[in-house]
Prior knowledge:
Elements: E1 13-27, E2 30-46, E3 51-55, H1 62-69, E4 77-82, E5 85-86, H2 92-101, E6 102-105, H3 119-129, H4 135-148, H5 165-177, E7 183-187, H6 195-212, E8 215-219, H7 223-229, E9 232-237, E10 240-246, H8 247-252, H9 257-264, H10 305-309, E11 314-316, E12 322-324
Parallel strand pairs: 3-8, 3-9, 6-7, 7-8
Antiparallel strand pairs: 1-2, 1-4, 4-5, 9-10, 10-12, 11-12
Amino acid sequence: MSNQTDERVNPILDVQGLRKYFSSKKTFGKSTNKQVKAVDDVSFQIFKGETMGLVGESGCGKSTTGRSMLRIIEPSSGKVMYENQDILKLSSKQFRRVKQEMQMVFQDPYSSLNPRKRIGDTLKEPLIIHSIGNRKEYTDRVMDILNKVGLRTDHFYRYPHEFSGGQRQRIGLARALVANPKVLILDEPVSALDVSIQSQIINLLEELQEEFGLTFLFIAHDMSVVRHISDRIGVMYLGKMMEEAPTDRLFANPLHPYTQALLSAVPIAKVGVKKERIRLKGEIPSPLNPPSGCIFHTRCPFAMDICKASAPEKRNMGNGHTVACHLYNDRC
């Protein structure tokens, strides 16, 4: 976790009302005009040098949020303010500089590596695309980055299939770092790795963040991992942000029933200590037909009539803690 002061300046990233809707023309062979609201009115800020964790069950929209921020998939609406400019309004030429400064690391780096190219040639590509340095400097730059992520210089000449899963993730980090970015969006970067390798990659990320002054958006479903690396955490469910708070505060005092259920599933590494597990009723609703009102009310143990009728607004509970839940209406 990066060291943060109490002073807050303008955020390096300010996501405002981000939406990504996918049209669904057919469902079980029948024509429909329904939309899948993968990301629905999501807002949050990330400040320079910090790590913002984004968590939730599979299908909650957290990965789509990260990809929409980088326009890997174009958002339906909203704003993504990067250093006080809305990058969703930039032309392709203008956005090229932003792509250099904002990079993404994927869950499965092997699928994004060309199996016919040596790793060194793959890592040179960002330098060529963004015209960083000259051709004589490319090899030295790549060799240096390989060393920074814990790989050897002779790995420069190898092919993707010659590496283990942990090594491939280091290659993914190297490719993101070679263009000297300011922000990394890390999409489930350790979920496919063994536990021992996960800890190595997490420690590496923290070292790289301190050395290069990086800002992270860390997307994951493992609350234990997110707790270790994040300064703040946002909790998503069916495309919406349910709660956001500094990490220590969220774990000490989770307010939203969904957050409480997620945290109850985190194992305790103490012999003889038992924790009551909150088991949510029912299944996650289909994003093609989400519940009215609060989208969580069909599984919430505290659901009230108002939860079925209207969606809750985000409430500021103080100290950077916000929650979207009707249980806290009287505290706004």
